[in-house]
Amino acid sequence: MGSEQVATADRVDPVHQFIVNDLVPLGRIADMKLAFQNSSLFMFVAVAIIVGLLLLGTSSRKLVPGRVQSVVELLYEFIAGTVRQVLGEEGMRFFPFVFSLFTFILTLNLLGMVPYFFTVTSQIVVTASLALLVIGVVIVVGFVKNGVGFLKLFVPHGVPIVLLPLISVIEFISFFARPVSLSLRLFGNMLAGHIVLKVFAGFIGTLGAFGFFGAIGAIAPFLMTVAITALEFLVSFLQAFVFAVLTCVYLKDALHPHH
Hints:
Elements: H1 2-12, E1 22-29, E2 32-37, H2 38-59, H3 67-87, H4 95-111, H5 124-146, H6 164-176, H7 178-208, H8 211-217, H9 219-255
Antiparallel strand pairs: 1-2
């Protein structure tokens, strides 16, 4: 009976879907346990889907594109247009980086919408790693392109000398708060949306167990579940797009640190 109660609690608990599970133990290094986990599995699946889609879309290019080629071309033009709009033509050298981030995050978000799949972007360690990667690239590009002049990013032009130390400290804190906001935005939206979706879906099963009148009452949470599902698909795209746009904005600061 106890195991049945635990299993039932797992199905009802909306946070249970975000638990990272070990799939294949890989031993230990010192006191650290290594394992291939469900989060790793879905990241590999996302990469496989992206590579497969790009290969299918570009292997036999036609003047009149098929469905897969149309999707690939649409993704390419969409991100290329975004990079050109924010960074200009010189920013196209960063297109592979921004395109990879966008497609990776978008694919992970969409995979998380499949029932019983794992939402990798609901893990703060994953979103934080992506955000730190972006800021790391921005810092490297900034110093390579401008040398010590990159530090002018923290010295806004036209600020009175008296206020300059205070403003520089604020700019410094603001810059290194970027990976925090970047990671928390993606993590928070995916986590909260899936929890709300699971809660309303749970209402359907709970109310449906009370016979005819319960089934009537379950119509409202069912409609809400459908609406939230549609919203979550939109959020999945928007969060990937916002991450890509902010990456472009941060890279622009690295290329042109003068305020």
